Amino acid sequence: MELNILVNAPVFRGMEPDEISSAISSVPYRIRKYSAGTLIAQSGEAVKSFIIVLDGLVKGEMTDYAGRVIKIEDIPAPGALASAFIFGSKNTFPVNVVAITDTRLLIIEKSDFLRFLKCNDKILGNFLDMISSRSQFLSEKIKFLNFKTIRGKLAQFILEAANQGKDEINLNLTQSELAEYFGVARPSIARVMSDLEQEGIIITKGRNLKITDRRRLTELTLE
After folding, report:
1. DSSP secondary structure string, 141-179?
2. Which of 201, 203, 204, 205 is nearest to 218 (CA)?
3. Which CA distances in Å does 135 have to 14, 84, 132, 163, 215?
4. Do residues 118 and 161 share a domain?
5. What is the pTM of this model?
6. How far apart are CA 201 and CA 212, in angstroms?
7. What is the pLDDT of residue 146?
8. How confident is the model at residue 48 (pLDDT cuts 50, 70, 90)?
9. Do 90 and 10 share a structural domain?
């Protein structure tokens, strides 16, 4: 088992390699490999296991009624898949999970994982932190998706990236990735970016962006 990977997994936060080795060897687990582009789990499918991405990159995405694909998030190693949906009355995958690159997953069945939690207070505490953080993330995502216009969504994205009052930021997504994130066509993102520049709200150079009119940018989030 790759302890150098698991030591960075949120569920094992604060644990020494020997503690992780002892914990993981106390329950049955399996490793599954997925090729790039493979569907790992489909929206509505039951979450029957606790799953950690050992290596590779996967994404969660959903398709709206118009057939547009909206990326919810990328999940790199050593993140967990659908950790907030293992338990509860509706424990199903909320989105499709797709391998972006060749990927290996560590899988612990639900009944074994429950025993895993009961036997280790550190893991239990870390897991509770994980699902609380997931709930907060999904709450923010829902709020973001409620913005009706692309201008409003883009304004909110820029303001969140420029936290703590910064006016200059480096966008971590290309226009194509932003389009996928928003569930719109790439030309729409390019057009809105150009409009915001012409209106004197932002200045862009490559992935570098400077907010020149924060008040107006904030007003756009109300659209």
Report:
1. HHHHHT--SHHHHHHHHHHHHTGGG-SEEE-SS-HHHHH
2. 201
3. 22, 7, 5, 21, 30
4. no
5. 0.66
6. 5
7. 61
8. very high
9. yes
Nearest to 81 by CA among 69, 70, 68, 92: 92
Which pLDDT band, with edges at 50, 70 and 90, does 223 fall under? Answer: low
Inside any domain, residue 39: yes
- Structural domain span for residue 164: 150-220
Q: What digits encode the pLDDT tens for the residues 158-172?
A: 888 887 678 899 888
Stated as kind and residue range, the H or E segment containing 110 is helix 110-119
Average pLDDT of the residues in 170-191: 83
Taking CA 51 as the corner, what is the angle to CA 68 and CA 72, rounded to the nearest 5 degrees? 20
Q: At residue 20, what are phi and psi to the nearest 5 degrees? A: -65, -45
Nearest residue to 162 (alpha-carbon basis) of 151, 170, 154:
170
Q: Which two tokens stand for residue 55?
A: 């290596």
| Distance (Å, whole) CA 84 – CA 134 | 6
Number of Cβ within a 10 Å radius of residue 218? 13
